[in-house]
Amino acid sequence: MRANFGKIHKSGKNKSPNFTQKFSTTQSSPEKSEDEVKRKMAPVLQSSQPWVEKYRPKQVKDVAHQEEVVRVLTNTLETANCPHMLFYGPPGTGKTTTALAIAHQLFGPELYKSRVLELNASDDRGINVVRTKIKTFAAVAVGSGQRRGGYPCPPYKIIILDEADSMTEDAQNALRRTMETYSKVTRFFFICNYISRIIEPLASRCAKFRFKPLSEEVMSSRVLHICNEEGLNLDAEALSTLSSISHGDLRRAITYLQGAARLFGSSITSKDLISVSGVIPPEVVEGLFAVCRSGDFDLANKEVNNIIAEGYPASLLLSQLFDVVVETEDISDEQQARICKCLAKVDKCLVDGADEYLQLLDVASNVIRAVCNMPEEFQYDC
Ligand SMILES: Nc1ncnc2c1ncn2[C@@H]1O[C@H](COP(=O)(O)OP(=O)(O)O)[C@@H](O)[C@H]1O
Ligand SMILES: [Mg+2]
């Protein structure tokens, strides 16, 4: 269910320019033309640039809460000796940020374009691309490693495969040979949410780094930093709401914050954040749970009817109800377990296309039975 919840907002993804742009190095004074473009675009960029990009840490050491990863990678930067890497963990925890930062710190702006190939889920990464583009890039030899402009510039290239778990198994298999054949001149960075979706032969060739969900304090401090920079006013309640609706995903938190700032100006309340995030207002979910706890089926039916009439998505209601149930302290573990079991079943039914109203009614009746300690299944006397 949490996975469902996590899918709602996936904005703020870094869009990489297409392959040809990245692969072809502009030989004739690249910095000059780039600078000119930047200068011309600056005012437009500043107003429309997503904050997720604007506040993306540029250096590995600025990545918060992933101390172990940062420690190992800082060493890597010093020796400029880097293995193939696999970054995995929940969304919005700094994986892409870390990969981009390390590539930038290794090569600097001058060499970055010719040494680093970024491909994410929006680029075609089927088996043909692996056999052609990736292989061609991987095969290119690079000069011996010599520091340039204060950057280590090691003698290899980096291929960043973001959201690698969305690559087909065939494409992943096709990568095995490329990885091995060109490992002297190319390092691969795989980034994914689910490590189990990366085939074992690839995973076993990489140094693996797990990214932890960000704690509430870390989220709050990053959010407050952005509020300071942007001149926003966020009270304590809004801050804690933002942390709880983002579930440790800082990208989501920043996106909600920017959405709320656009719509509601510089003073943002907890309600504003809830309305831009699309989550069901907590009082609706708590209301349904309270009615169920009263044991009155008619009232529960009315509440479910209201929820459906309001158009709240049932699957989202399940995940929010789940949070309410596990946080409720005055019901027993067994009662909580019974409710969670029902939520899981209903979640599956919804995925299979069952009717939302009937499924929510099923949840409501199961919650009533659990909290009133009625038997799990009805017994019919024949
Ligand atoms: N550990 C972190 N430290 C600082 N900022 C972070 C961290 N994790 C995420 N962010 C913020 O969230 C945004 C998205 O992070 P990203 O690295 O793209 O996440 P993902 O793990 O999904 O690749 C970044 O632009 C950055 O502003
Ligand atoms: Mg990412």
From TrEMBL:
InterPro entries linked to this entry: AAA+_ATPase, ATPase_AAA_core, DNA_pol3_clamp-load_cplx_C, DNA_Rep/Repair_Clamp_Loader, P-loop_NTPase, Rep_factorC_C, RFC_lid
Membrane-traversing stretches: none
Residue span(s) of domain AAA+ ATPase: 81-214
Subcellular location: Nucleus
Top-level lineage group: Eukaryota
Listed GO CC annotations: DNA replication factor C complex; nucleus
Annotated region (Disordered), positions in chain: 1-42
Molecular-function GO term, any one: DNA binding
Subunit structure, interactors included: Heterotetramer of subunits RFC2, RFC3, RFC4 and RFC5 that can form a complex with RFC1.
Function description: May be involved in DNA replication and thus regulate cell proliferation.
Protein name listed in UniProt: AAA+ ATPase domain-containing protein
Organism (species): Citrus clementina (Clementine)
